[in-house]
């Protein structure tokens, strides 16, 4: 029941909202099958119910025998941690685009000036039906092309709402038109109607641009009217073109400024009609790429621990690959993170310690102390890392507290080291995500012994970063030092190191300047240009050595730290199952082994034999396995009937309940009808599940299997 | 009885409607009395402050004949006219000439454009609102005076509104001598102007609307009404199925080169400089298009380039200066000739890379900078593979898949291809033809998935740099190849217009997809994957 | 100073005459075997003998069906005041039965000062119609139904026609149904049940003879001697007009126009164009008024839009023509571009432009209707691959190229 609870929690993830009620009735497989296409969370919870992944046995059992207090503690710890993480993510995403937003805003003001310079229409002229301007230049519609350099659009929906909010706060009138408004069937009228709905805040029956202009001029205050079209690719081109042309005819009377969200620059050229393109006077703005946003999120959430929660290397690698290879959406990544988090809190008994982990730890551990006492005594076997080191005894609680404090200290060091490394790697586009995956690798850590300064094998990101530090031109070098100083401010001794690196650099510079009088012959300049380089090189080397020191000393991966299970989520199998849990295969597995799912006593004894008491659809699907990719309907039905009411042969004790007098011709007939009904229902269900395709006109008595093998 | 009722009622309603906002409105003073001066009276059927004939003629260079023609056809004061049909290419000044002409004649008219009036109801109600002098505003809840969406009702309402207006016009003409508050209006002839008539041809119900419009004059049977149609397409596009006596055609030819020069010179600060600029650019661009609305934006940006080297904008250019300016404009021109849509980018820190305005399409052949062969938007790897495989699926004939890919993947596809070269040739020709005429071929989902599988298996073989130590295929590349992720990717590819789907349900095999990406985009994507796409595409 | 506004007054008079068809057709009505007298006989017989009638007026556009009908009705209204009620319906407005019945009810109400309710249902209206027919029959008032654009009423289920013609069968009612249509086979469109109730009376409107035409033109253009116009001016004007009418250059102009548009309304349009170009200070019509009017009325839109094309668009047209000469049954934009490339490669033309520019030019051509898609609205894929065809004949194209000023010689060579 702990698992179902987690399913409920996970189900209410920000992007795919799912009422917890749904996750309870995923007992009957077919329902799950139907839902499976849309909801990933369901799939996951089913998967766990069936206990296919052997890894989670003990954890779940541990979860089962856990007392209510424990569980409730974990629950609220999860709420606490996750809300924190979510807040952080929102903040990061909001201010990563802030500069683009402000730029857009200033552009809007400029173009608003331009429009006003064209049109000095009084409100009386503006309400006239005919165009008052004759200058073709006055028909230009200023258009901001906001490039979300991403094929997916899920992440940018929020962005555009934020943009709308931002512009509203700047005092523009903003309307946000989604791509659904620009559909061929409701045409131009639909767009205008929704425009009016958003501006006038009242439904108007005959939607007309003249209304908008009279509204605007009744307001009387000169503020730009901004229309945001947020997903160009999905708009119906002709409708949007008509809309744009209409706007361009009215732009003299209503200072409309259009903002279009598109993935690349040449999307408008492909979608819009050239008459519409002609009206646009466009200017492009670029948002941050998903990878950049991803790095920002990772930095905020996983590196600078906003909450003590962290993930192991395997999990990180999996999530990285899921992002790069499967779907490149942040929302999916965040969902994965949430699932991981939830799983961690469900399965890890001591995870409740994470609550208030980052505050002043002592009392927050002290108050839980008594609980911890018996918690440790109960689950000490479960914490492998500390068992490895020392026998846990009654003083485990105190030991644990100190361990937690230690853990936190290590984490801080680790994160600031990682940030320094990231800063160093920035110049050669090393992404924080990759870096994280590498840094978290425990055996890599094991491989490099503290004495050998060849910190990492060649070609890895770390070595690239270090190399980067080595050959960094001094202009950027000083910046790098500054950024380091910013990062390591928390840890005094390292801060000192950075400080004297800076001193050294300054000193070197000063020396160079001294030995470099302004007037000097060319030959010498070249010559001591060399030793200038040499000097700076020396500084770079020192810096590189410093980095290696950081790596060797501070960068201890989570998994090598005692008690890391408390804060670190390791079970990648479970996450994979939850996230990429392959619905079609799952469907077929469930169908073939339905008895495993609904634990009914009668069928489970005979694994391989099909019994009439089994679930119809699963019987039919099992039967259909004998056929090729086309199934003869009649044969299938016959075999189905044979199973349900076996004749002379192939009957065993279960069937002997039917006594001879039971199945007379009459009941046969009834059965016949009933069976046909059940058969048809089965076929439709299989079809709905997407395992079958209905027969074509040419071959009315054949079905086609569209399910690909397990 | 009802006839003289309607205008008075409407006038009362409009007065109440418009006086309330003007009283509590906070606008600049000038407009205010303009509003309550004109809103109740019929005198806002005219354009307002009339202009003289030679101002009119000078406003529109190269339109002298048309203007005089129109004046003749409209005839002297209060003389009835047959309907006109004014036509000519886009941006040849039809609408402006007509409107300014009415401004000059100072006669009452009702204008309605089919761009703004996108439906019958909007059209009818806007015409009626104008005739009944009804302004839709907050006071009357933005509702129109009469609700009508059927031609039959419209004719009734229109007739009574028109008679009312004409009646009041006649009496206002009578008393306009000694009434000073209102502007004098010339005559009682009222003209209905229908603009952008070509748009109606796109409408579904055009078949019923167009004959109605063209017969409106005969149906109304009011001699004091003139009907004017303005269209950018020639009359024969309308009369094919039309059942009416055609209106009198008036043709606006597209501007000749020197007309364009005059028009462009009209309001330029530095005439000399601009004319020297036009000497350079006008001729080459006129070979592409002579449309003012297409030339104006291009010339605006080009002129900025042209003036950039100049110190003071007021300078009068001499010969070598012109030559110098021309020489540094030259590359701009050649690029501008091949673009249809230019996107400026503001000078900003992150937009540094693309400082200069870049153009769509044309750049494809012209520029060869390194930013072309990098992909400028983010796709996840499986989506990239899907894109490539769909590209292949719609480019290559399906019969050749077997020879390209097999269970072991396309690794040795080269020699296989050599083997089946002769039969390839034949299918290749047909494929070329197909591609040229019908565009990229369509393919079922199964084929796409099969190719995808092959490609990913190939990619697994090849070393993959971006995943570093462990290669990405291991995680979920193969084992849930056909999982929902791939199907989700397909759907999002469809959303991005990379795949175009025909049919209904994506789970049914019956759906056929078609890949719309251009070849160089596909090659770009392949390059980011280090995938040898070129050897899979058939060429002659 | 008198001549000036006299001329203006004359111009106004002529224009108002030309705008009013009933005046134009008046002279054709006096002969006993004219449609006017036949129609008048039919209607007046139904008034006098209190019988029902139905008739179709068939004839090409602008041959004056409605005008004659109006004349007849007008005269009858004068002869028998308040014995006729005229209900006018138009196929363009009331083609669906609901609105038709509603309109009938409305007009009847207006006619008889009754209160008309918009909310009345179809059945109410039809009941009301039958009731009114009976009432008027008893009161010996004839109801005349004028169905303009009669052929449009035959679309749909023809309930209106059936109701009307069925009411004709009863003795009590007294009504005339006059259908006006420019489809000569309009009565073939009727359903069987309707056709059986229709008295197959048809009046055919044929173009008038030359001398009728002559008379008509004179009648329309000559000023009346007895009017507010100064007498000497009118006399002078008419004299000038006579001299023009007898001039056979004028005859040629009229004939050349009449051959292309053999209908009187078209002629009126032509005369209107000519008259409106009347020089006011000259004061009377002159031959070149008609001369200039002719080309401005008879237009060749294709030629004009060819003249509007830019060089690039002409190139595309020529490419398409070459493709059609090569018997490529269906070709698309991409094929045209290929052809364009080959031309460029072989001749090294100065104007070779990018594909998207060509595409814009292509869409210009589509817009001005020189080329068109052969398939329906298939918007699932871009313009590039939809099959297109030329909408002008090759001969027109070559002629247009010749008339195009500064057309590159290469194009002419390629097109030939």
Provide a descriptive summary of the structure in words.
The complex is a heterotrimer of chains A (710), B (540) and C (416). Chain A is flat and about 105 Å long. In chain A, 60% of the residues lie in helices and 6% in strands. Chain A has four domains: 2-56, no CATH class; 98-287, Rossmann fold (3-Layer(aba) Sandwich), CATH 3.40.50; 293-468 and 557-569, no CATH class; 583-705, no CATH class. Mean pLDDT of chain A is 73; it is low at 1-66, 387-394, 450-456 and 649-664. Chain A is α/β, with parallel strands linked by helices and 710 residues long. Chain A starts with a helix and ends in a 5-residue tail after the last strand. In chain A, α21 runs antiparallel to α27 (522-554). Chain B has three domains: 40-252, Rossmann fold (3-Layer(aba) Sandwich); 257-346 and 353-367, no CATH class; 381-413 and 431-462 and 479-535, Arc Repressor Mutant, subunit A. Chain B has 21 helices and ten strands. In chain B, α8 links the parallel β3 and β4 (225-231). The N and C termini of chain C lie far apart (60 Å). Chain C is flat. In chain C, 40% of the residues are buried. Chain C is built from 21 helices and seven strands. Chain C has three domains: 3-18 and 209-299, no CATH class; 31-204, Rossmann fold (3-Layer(aba) Sandwich), CATH 3.40.50; 303-415, Arc Repressor Mutant, subunit A. Chain C is α/β, with parallel strands linked by helices and 416 residues long. In chain C, the strands form two sheets. Chain C has a five-stranded parallel sheet with strand order 2-3-4-1-5, with helices on both faces. A two-stranded antiparallel sheet of chain C has the order 6-7. The chains are: A alpha/beta (710), B alpha/beta (540), C alpha/beta (416). At the A-B interface, α7, α8, α10, α11 and α12 of A face α2, α5, β2, α6 and α12 of B.
Structurally, the number of domains of chain A stands at 4
CATH architecture of the largest domain in chain B: 3-Layer(aba) Sandwich
Distance between the termini of chain B: 82 Å
| Main sheet: strand order of chain B | 2-3-4-1-5
> Average pLDDT value of chain B?
74
Assigned CATH class of the largest domain in chain B: Alpha Beta
Domain module count of chain B = 3
Radius of gyration of chain A: 33 Å
- Largest sheet, strands/sense/barrel of chain B: 5 strands, parallel
